[in-house]
Specification:
The chain is mainly beta. It has four helices and 35 strands. The strands form seven sheets. Strands 1, 10, 11, 12, 14, 16, 17 and 19 form an eight-stranded mixed β-sheet that branches. It has a six-stranded mixed β-sheet with strand order 25-22-28-33-30-31, with no helix packed on it. A hairpin with a 2-residue loop joins strand 20 and strand 21. Bound molecules: CU-O-CU linkage and copper (II) ion (CU).
Length: about 450
C-alpha cells in the first residue's frame, strides 16, 4: 500500500530519541533522491505515540548545520518545554542535544516541528506526528494518518534554495510545486471494502492550504486540532479546509464497491486537483453495518466564561495589496515599504511586527508582549483579517474555542479567509510568555508574530 502510515501502538514508557540531520530519500519516482532534513533519517519523522496522561520524554540531537529546537504543536505543556529558542530555551546548537519531558493532558492528533528558522527547517522536511491515544479509542479497523505537505522542487527533484523569497513572504507564503502524502508524491490509498478507518489529517506544509473533497465518501468529522467535536457526517461536496498546522480526525466507512476507485481532490479557487485515489481491493468477508461513531471523550480543557470574558482584538494587516502604511518593527516606527526593504517585514499584528521570538528582536527596542493576561481569567479575542490573504493564526500553550464555527470546536489554530473576522475564547490557564503567530511560516518570519504573557 502506498502512502499510508500504519500507526504504532503506544510504548509503555514513552521515551524517544530524535536526531535531526540531512538525509537523501526518494520522493519523486524515477528521479534521484531528494536531499531533505529529517528526523532519524525519515521524512516525515517517526510517529511518536503515547497514552493520554502519560509523560513523554524526547532527546533531540541536532546534527543539522544550524541551530534548531522542537516545538510540540497543540500540546498544553509547561512553558519551558515549548521549544521556542530565545523565549523558552536556548537554541540547540549543531552537535548539541536537548531533552524535552512533559505530561500529555490531552488525547488527539498533534505534531512536532522546529521553531527556529522554521520556514527553512520545516520547508526542508523536519516534522512528524505526535499521537496521544484516548483511554477509550473509537472502534475502527485501522488507525491511519495522512501527513499532507508540499515541497518546492527543481527538475532534479532537489529542494529549491530560495527560502525567504520576497515574493513568498509578502504574498501567499512558500507554496511548493509537489504535493505530498506522507512524504511521497501522492498517488493512491488502498481500502478494504467494508472497513472503518480513523483517518488523521495533518497539514504540515509551510503555506499551502488544503481543501479536501472526498469523492464518493461521506466521512465523519470527529476531532479538530486533536480536540473532539460532535461527530458530523460531511456531505459529498463538503470541503475540509486545513491551513498549515491544522489537523482533522475523520472516521471513514469504506462503503465503495470492491475494485472501485474514488478521487480525493484538493480544491483551490474553484479548481479541483486530484490529490490521490482511494482504491478498493477485492471484497472481504462480510462485515456488519456499523452504528454511527460515538463522540470521543472531551479533553480536560477549561471552558471560557463568555459572560465575564475580557474582550481583546487582534488586527492582521500588511502583505501585498495592503492598506497598511506605517508599523512598528521591533518597536521602531517605519513605513511598510522601508520595513520590507530593510527588514524583510511585510506583516503586522496590531500594527507591530516582531522579527524574533522575543519582542524587540533582542535589541531592547520592543514594547513587551502584545497582550498581558491574568492567569485563570477568560478572554475572548476578535481576530480581524484586514489583508488580501488567508492566515492560520496559532496560539501556543492553550486551546481556544472558535465561537463563529458551527461546531464551536476547540482548536489551537484558526484559519481566517482574506478580509474576514472571527472570535475565539479561552481561559488563560497556562503561565508563561507564549507565541501567537501566523502558521504560514513566511508570514511569521516576516513580522506576523507576537507574544502573549499569562501570569
Ligand atoms: Cu506549529 Cu509556533 O508553531
Ligand atoms: Cu499569514
Amino acid at each position: 500500500m502506498v502512502g499510508s502510515i500504519l500507526l504504532p501502538r503506544a510504548a509503555k514508557a514513552a521515551g524517544y530519541a530524535l536526531t535531526a540531520a540531512p538525509v537523501t530519500l526518494p520522493v519523486v519516482p524515477g528521479q534521484p533522491g531528494t536531499m531533505l532534513w529529517g528526523y532519524n533519517g525519515r521524512f516525515p519523522g517517526p510517529v511518536l505515540r503515547m497514552r493520554q496522561g502519560e509523560r513523554l520524554r524526547v532527546a533531540l540531537q541536532n546534527n543539522l548545520p544550524q541551530d534548531s529546537s522542537i516545538h510540540w504543536h497543540g500540546l498544553r505543556l509547561p512553558h519551558a518545554m515549548d521549544g521556542v529558542p530565545g523565549l523558552t530555551q536556548p537554541p540547540v546548537k549543531p552537535g548539541e542535544s536537548f531533552v524535552y519531558e512533559f505530561d500529555c493532558p490531552d488525547a488527539g492528533t498533534f505534531w512536532y516541528h522546529p521553531h527556529w528558522a522554521s520556514a527553512e527547517q520545516v520547508g526542508r522536511g523536519l516534522y512528524g506526528l505526535l499521537i496521544v491515544d484516548e483511554h477509550a479509542p473509537p472502534d475502527v479497523d485501522r488507525d491511519v494518518a495522512w501527513v499532507l505537505s508540499d515541497l518546492r522542487l527543481n527538475r532534479q527533484a532537489q529542494i529549491q534554495d530560495d527560502f525567504g523569497h520576497p515574493m513568498d513572504i509578502s504574498h501567499a507564503g512558500r507554496l511548493g510545486n509537489t504535493a505530498l502524502l506522507n512524504g511521497q508524491l501522492a498517488q493512491r490509498f488502498a481500502l478494504v471494502p467494508g472497513e472503518r478507518i480513523r483517518l488523521r489529517l495533518l497539514n504540515a506544509a509551510n503555506a499551502r492550504i488544503f481543501h479536501l473533497r472526498f469523492g464518493g465518501h461521506r466521512p465523519w468529522l470527529v476531532a479538530l486540532d486533536g480536540h473532539p467535536v460532535q461527530p458530523r457526517r460531511l456531505e459529498q461536496d463538503h470541503l475540509i479546509s486545513l491551513g498549515p498546522g491544522m489537523r482533522a480526525d475523520l472516521i471513514l466507512d469504506a462503503a465503495g464497491e470492491p475494485g472501485s476507485s474514488h478521487p480525493v481532490f484538493d480544491v483551490e479557487r474553484g479548481q479541483a486537483y486530484r490529490l490521490l485515489d482511494l482504491v478498493y481491493g477485492p471484497a472481504a468477508a462480510g462485515r456488519p453495518s456499523r452504528p454511527d461513531p460515538a463522540p470521543l471523550s472531551p479533553n480536560p480543557v477549561a471552558e471560557p466564561d463568555l459572560a465575564r470574558a475580557t474582550r481583546l482584538r487582534l488586527d492582521l494587516t500588511g502583505g501585498a495589496m495592503s492598506r497598511l502604511d506605517n508599523l512598528k518593527v521591533d518597536g521602531r516606527d517605519m513605513s511598510l515599504g522601508d520595513a520590507f526593504r530593510q527588514h524583510r517585514v511585510a506583516w503586522a499584528l496590531n500594527g507591530r511586527a516582531q522579527t524574533g521570538h522575543r519582542h524587540g528582536g533582542g535589541h531592547g527596542h520592543g514594547n513587551g508582549p502584545l497582550f498581558r493576561l491574568n492567569l485563570g481569567k477568560s478572554y475572548s479575542l476578535e481576530i480581524v483579517n484586514d489583508t488580501a490573504w488567508p492566515h492560520p493564526v496559532h496560539l501556543h500553550g492553550h486551546a481556544f474555542r472558535v465561537l463563529d464555527d458551527p461546531d464551536r470546536p476547540l482548536r489551537d489554530t484558526v484559519l481566517l479567509e482574506p478580509r474576514s473576522r472571527t472570535s475565539v475564547a479561552f481561559v488563560a490557564d497556562n503561565p508563561g510568555e507564549w507565541m501567537l503567530h501566523c502558521h504560514i511560516l513566511e508570514h511569521q518570519a516576516a513580522g506576523m508574530m507576537a507574544t502573549v504573557q499569562v501570569s
